[in-house]
């Protein structure tokens, strides 16, 4: 764009076109907003195609039945969309009935590429614009109960958990850990937060020593093997004699199918090495800097 | 080597190869294929729906394009075909007109994109002009803004613009001419108001 005052309204088509071409370089570009290390759209698409789940995702929720008559690349006609949505509702109803009847919610967990780290999550300076799928980042300056800024949902109490989540809260029976400093609830997930202290070293989230998340479901090893990003290691372990997984190294993303069959992307940033285990119809996810053996020992006290 | 997601001639063959391998079930090949056009795809999604999550729309479009790949003609250019799906996905995600957010300018305007340092006075004038022009673009009707965006912001050829927008080439021409006329009208109103 030329740098002298002139009337844009008097420009010829070709001149105005040139002004517009020059303007393009100044428009906020969403492509620069993605934090380093976060999976790009091509990678995310590949992961979804490889697993066959999460297809047809709508914001925050992945509808698993997208390929049923969803016209790629074209606008969805209202009648057709209605039919697809009706079909989805029917299948979801069957899934719920199945879950109730057989007690197997069929939850799966996918580990994708690395999530952004706090050092790169700030993004470039500039006006507010569309943001990438970067996970929320913790901040030591966020006021409120421990875990504020981790996108854990609403603060709650142990007494209120059964009413919110539909299952009783399970807590570690360990004097070295004690009661959680904060309990959060979001979308069927209960998160217990302990602040860092002697015996609970700080995780990658400033001030946080331990984070345990509980929700209905069970894990699927096939996804572990396929979806781990570079720099992330998966080790099969046992917790109380049951199969479990220890994920170390680079942060990973966390996606699972809820009991109704919807794929849920838990977009919050993973804060440390992670232990995943299942007991009954509940899945537990512990993020800690304790190390594998201590984490397993602590996990075995949770009932 | 690509320029704005546009492959060089020797890479066009590779597009065809990757498409063929994708059709044979190699999803890794598909990832490589769409990554070539990822940047321009995200920009397209952003230009068509500035208030949406452009990367999310792009990802969704990539998945839908994979499902539709069987209908892609091997002799056709892949980029505009893919961008059409991206554009449609972004359109479907647009908010209602009353809640819509327009394109925004970068805040840091003290340097030109080429890195040269202009005088403070010219910086202010140029910044004002950019704001005025973008405000006028944001005020255009959707189809006028879209045709302007693909031709001038993405610098697609007329044929690529036609495929991306899903309209004949002649319509691209006439719509662009109309868009520029309306843009000038809007600019004139804006200048009178100042």
Structural notes for this entry:
The complex is a heterodimer of chains A (303) and B (194). Chain A is an alpha+beta fold and 303 residues long. Chain A has helices at residues 13-24, 41-51, 78-102, 161-165, 221-227, 292-299; strands at 57-58, 61-62, 109-110, 154-156, 182-186, 189-195, 208-216, 232-239, 242-249, 254-257, 263-266, 273-279, 282-288. Chain A contains 6 helices and 13 strands. Chain A is elongated. With 194 residues, chain B is mainly alpha-helical. Helices cover 68% and strands 2% of the residues of chain B. Chain B has 9 helices and 2 strands. Chain B has a two-stranded antiparallel sheet. Chain B is elongated, with a radius of gyration of 19 Å. Chains A and B meet through helix 1 and helix 2 of A and helix 2, helix 3, helix 4, helix 5 and helix 6 of B.
List the helices and strands and how they pair.
The complex is a heterodimer of chains A (303) and B (194).
Chain A (H helix, E strand, L loop, with lengths): L12 H12 L16 H11 L5 E2 L2 E2 L15 H25 L6 E2 L43 E3 L4 H5 L16 E5 L2 E7 L12 E9 L4 H7 L4 E8 L2 E8 L4 E4 L5 E4 L6 E7 L2 E7 L3 H8 L4
Antiparallel strand pairs in A: 1-2, 2-11, 3-10, 4-5, 5-6, 6-7, 7-13, 8-9, 9-12, 10-11, 12-13
Chain B lengths: L1 E2 L2 E2 L1 H15 L3 H10 L1 H11 L5 H15 L9 H16 L26 H19 L3 H12 L4 H8 L3 H25 L1
Antiparallel strand pairs in B: 1-2
Helix pairs in contact in B: 1-2, 3-4, 3-5, 4-5, 5-8, 6-9, 7-8, 7-9, 8-9
């Amino acid at each position: 764009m030329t740098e002298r005052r002139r009337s844009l309204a008097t420009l010829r088509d070709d001149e105005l076109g040139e002004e517009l071409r020059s303007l393009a370089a100044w428009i906020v570009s969403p492509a620069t907003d993605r934090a380093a290390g976060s999976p790009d759209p091509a990678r995310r698409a590949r992961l979804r195609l490889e697993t066959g789940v999460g297809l047809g995702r709508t914001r925050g929720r992945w509808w698993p039945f997208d390929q049923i008559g969803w016209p790629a690349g074209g606008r969805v006609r209202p009648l057709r969309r209605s039919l697809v949505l009706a079909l989805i509702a029917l299948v979801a109803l069957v899934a719920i009935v199945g879950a109730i009847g057989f007690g197997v919610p069929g939850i799966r967990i996918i580990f994708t590429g690395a999530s952004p780290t706090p050092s790169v999550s700030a993004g470039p300076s500039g006006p507010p614009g569309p943001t990438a799928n970067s996970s929320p980042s913790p901040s030591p300056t966020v006021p409120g109960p421990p875990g504020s800024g981790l996108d854990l949902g609403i603060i709650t109490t142990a007494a209120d958990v059964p009413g919110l989540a539909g299952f009783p809260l399970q807590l570690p029976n360990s004097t070295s850990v004690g009661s959680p400093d904060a309990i959060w609830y979001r979308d069927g997930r209960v998160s217990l937060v302990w602040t860092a202290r002697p015996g609970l070293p700080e995780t990658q989230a400033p001030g946080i020593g331990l984070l345990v998340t509980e929700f209905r479901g069970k894990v699927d090893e096939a996804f572990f093997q396929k979806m781990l990003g570079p720099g992330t290691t998966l080790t099969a372990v046992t917790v109380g004699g049951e199969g479990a997984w220890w994920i170390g190294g680079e942060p990973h993303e966390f996606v699972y199918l809820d009991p109704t069959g919807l794929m849920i992307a838990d977009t919050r940033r993973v804060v440390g090495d992670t232990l995943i285990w299942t007991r009954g119809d509940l899945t537990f996810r512990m993020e800690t800097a304790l190390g594998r053996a201590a984490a397993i020992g602590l996990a075995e006290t949770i009932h | 080597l690509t320029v704005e997601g546009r492959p060089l001639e020797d890479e066009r063959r590779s597009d065809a190869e990757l498409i063929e391998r994708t059709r044979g079930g190699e999803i890794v090949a598909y990832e490589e294929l769409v990554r070539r056009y990822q940047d321009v795809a995200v920009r397209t999604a952003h230009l068509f729906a500035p208030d949406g999550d452009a990367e999310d729309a792009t990802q969704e479009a990539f998945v839908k394009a994979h499902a539709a790949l069987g209908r892609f003609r091997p002799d056709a250019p892949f980029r505009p075909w893919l961008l059409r799906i991206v554009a449609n996905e972004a359109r479907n995600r647009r908010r209602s007109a009353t809640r819509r957010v327009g394109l925004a300018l970068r805040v840091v305007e003290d340097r030109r994109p080429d890195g040269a340092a202009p005088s403070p006075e010219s910086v202010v004038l140029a910044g004002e002009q950019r704001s005025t022009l973008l405000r006028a673009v944001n005020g255009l009707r959707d189809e006028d803004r879209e045709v302007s965006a693909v031709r001038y912001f993405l610098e697609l050829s007329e044929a690529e613009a036609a495929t991306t927008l899903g309209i004949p080439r002649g319509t691209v021409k006439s719509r662009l001419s109309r868009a520029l006329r309306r843009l000038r009208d809007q600019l004139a109103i804006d200048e009178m108001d100042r």
